[in-house]
Amino acid sequence: xxxxxxxxxxxxxxxxxxxxxxxxxxxxxxxxxxxxxxxxxxxxxxxxxxxxxxxxxxxxxxxxxxxxxxxxxxxxxxxxxxxxxxxxxxxxxxxxxxxxxxxxxxxxxxxxxxxxxxxxxxxxxxxxxxxxxxxxxxxxxxxxxxxxxxxxxxxxxxxxxxxxxxxxxxxxxxxxxxxxxxxxxxxxxxxxxxxxxxxxxxxxxxxxxxxxxxxxxxxxxxxxxxxxxxxxxxxxxxxxxxxxxxxxxxxxxxxxxxxxxxxxxxxxxxxxxxxxxxxxxxxxxxxxxxxxxxxxxxxxxxxxxxxxxxxxxxxxxxxxxxxxxxxxxxxxxxxxxxxxxxxxxxxxxxxxxxxxxxxxxx
Amino acid sequence: xxxxxxxxxxxxxxxxxxxxxxxxxxxxxxxxxxxxxxxxxxxxxxxxxxxxxxxxxxxxxxxxxxxxxxxxxxxxxxxxxxxxxxxxxxxxxxxxxxxxxxxxxxxxxxxxxxxxxxxxxxxxxxxxxxxxxxxxxxxxxxxxxxxxxxxxxxxxxxxxxxxxxxxxxxxxxxxxxxxxxxxxxxxxxxxxxxxxxxxxxxxxxxxxxxxxxxxxxxxxxxxxxxxxxxxxxxxxxxxxxxxxxxxxxxxxxxxxxxxxxxxxxxxxxxxxxxxxxxxxxxxxxxxxxxxxxxxxxxxxxxxxxxxxxxxxxxxxxxxxxxxxxxxxxxxxxxxxxxxxxxxxxxxxxxxxxxxxxxxxxx
Lengths: 362, 362
Description:
Chain A is an alpha/beta fold. Helix content of chain A is about 45%, strand content about 20%. Chain A has helices at about 15-25, 40-45, 70-75, 95-115, 135-145, 190-200, 215-235, 240-245, 255-270, 280-290, 295-300, 310-320, 325-345, and strands spanning about 5-10, 30-35, 50, 55-60, 65, 80-85, 120-130, 150-160, 165, 170-175, 180-185, 210, 350-355, 360. Chain A has two domains: about 5-215, NAD(P)-binding Rossmann-like Domain (Rossmann fold, 3-Layer(aba) Sandwich); about 220-345, Orthogonal Bundle (N-(1-d-carboxylethyl)-l-norvaline Dehydrogenase, domain 2), CATH 1.10.1040. In chain A, the strands form three sheets. Chain A has an eight-stranded mixed β-sheet, sandwiched between helices. Chains A, B: Keywords: Membrane, Transmembrane, Transmembrane helix.
């Protein structure tokens, strides 16, 4: 498969990305590069400080290579066998994922076209991100590019990991990394083979968990059962889910989340994905007893854009296409669109003119 | 009707209450007392400073009497012909309206029972407040009291007035006062007669507007069309309604407020109140073009309890009783209950234990 050590490029060096990069690095089966952006200088000179439940206290860890930007990586002349994306996925934000990774896909493809030694190499794009149908944006991008003499494979990663960047090049990782990874399209044999290879490179026995995902679509819909309902409700109310349930109506069961979960299951079913209804109580009950703020709630509180479109917009558009009624998801989505607009305004990503009461620039 | 000037007691000396009291005072047809609470000392010594679009700049205005508390008014030995309540109406808060006004109703009733000169006097309770079926809480209170030798009448006031207390005994009043006032029960002839008398006392020709409400139930449901939908949405998103609409989905009409308004109309209809559907566009369009934060939005931003139960809880309970489906109102209500719980926690009105993830005290 590889005549030399494969090269992995991690884009998105936050809490998730740095632990992902370190997991590959310490297993020793590949070259690991990272896009460090604002942390570039400190990573180059001092490296990362990592406090990890899986790997202990690490001071001054440096990946094999470090780039200031995706553009810099693209200009390095390197071929990246795995482009691993651990950024947030915000298509309605200033830089959608396809725009972020385009330069390095382009440079990979160009090497394949222009140099015999790279001909027919596989460029694996690994999206370790939330949401459903996030691969479509990449597929659309690829359709605009010259992919002759190369093969591009799309790999889905769903990760459970409580890892946070708490300061410049400073990571705290609290829960054992659990990565489920496989081809977006299970019929894409190349993507399946390169997923298996990735798992081999990623596994650190006794430290992390990584397993092959033979049905990425199912895995993503299943995670959406939580993300489209519980995550979104906590974002709307800016509260952990335990409080949401406890502060809600006393006489009836909390009336939004479970019906919304039923709707997610109905949309998935319309796409041929069967999700066991028992998972509703499973997700509900474990979350109920854990005072924890999910990602979208944290985003709202920090004034950061939410992954709203891939978590809720995409399922709702699928529901509309397949004529599945989703009143609860619809209302939650509409309300969160407003909150997302508020965050955009506060970050200068849109301008609302109070005189005309209209959005004048976005 | 009265052998001497009627005595009005205004409870709730905020922006609305002080202008209401002044309107009665300046018309010169009654005695006006006010419960000034924390402003008591400054009102007693210096009086109110009022900047009013209707009455101009007033420095050091003092009502005829000023009490520190409702209990103090109750102990004054005075009979109050009109108990005018301009507080917020928050039955789920620490002091529901019935609890606030009980002492002064009790002292009125006692005078009627024990003194021949007060026998069969009418104690008018005027609720100038938002919401629907707010009179029921008072009716329930009266059922627990000895009302022999007295007549209690319940009067509904719906007021449009942009008046705010901006500091101690300092009021800014921006839009002409428009008061619609009449008996909660149009068949209660006493309440109708005393409503007419009140209007006569309240009117200041060329300054304010006051009109007799011959169908208070209709007037309240009509105002609810706005309050239960637009007011609540701005509270949920903590944004003016123009922004809510502008930040909402572009491809479809803003998908929450108009369906919610349809639901309000359906509940009203189940109670025999017909509201013209044209009012939906009327309220929607005027609000859309006005960058203005309604009361519940302001409450959330100030961390104050919202009038959630009288604006949304009561209509939803009526809907349940009459088997009217109100999915949109239901979701908005459930979400706002959570926000109300958050405000209660921040004000120490309930205690949430993070260890057990349960509300332990309320």
